[in-house]
Design brief:
Order of helices and strands: HEEEEEHEEEEEE
Helix content: 10-25%
Radius of gyration: 25 Å
Strand order of the largest sheet: 3-11-10-5-8-7
CATH class of the largest domain: Mainly Beta
Low-confidence stretches: none
Keywords: Membrane, Transmembrane, Transmembrane helix
Number of strands: 11
Number of helices: 2
CATH topology of the largest domain: Immunoglobulin-like
Mean pLDDT: 88
Length: 164
Amino acid sequence: MKTTPSPIIEKPFWLRFEYQLRRVGFVFLLAIVVAALVGIFSRGYLSQAHRSNDAGSLTLDYERFNRLTSSADLKINSIPTPGKPNRIILGGDFMEAFRIDNLQPQPANMYSQNGKVIIEYNALAGREKQTLWLSLTPMKIGVMKSTVALDNGAEIPFQQLVYP
């Protein structure tokens, strides 16, 4: 049996190069898929964050990683002083970096002052927990450093990374 020579000349250097490139590409794609599954690019285990003040009267649940012009949720639980209006103050980069699409329940009053968004609710009878749900749209790319405070109390700082 006679073997015919191959019309393609194979060079070992390029064969090894292709093999190594394929291995690196596979690992890179696998890392992207794993990162997406755990929440690096948006919702997921690593993206969920929880912050609270020392007194426990204000807690914040948010997503560390968001995408530009994609919906992001923010949940604020507060225990206001009885007989006083509940004022939630969002500051830092919040006003410039996010657009509020929806908030539930609707506040009695909402305004901006000195670069901060102030959301006011009527006074509650007892020391009840009140929950505010915000649906936001990120409007800037980068790291957004925002704060949330309850009626001019201590601010809770939080950061969110917004991808393009």
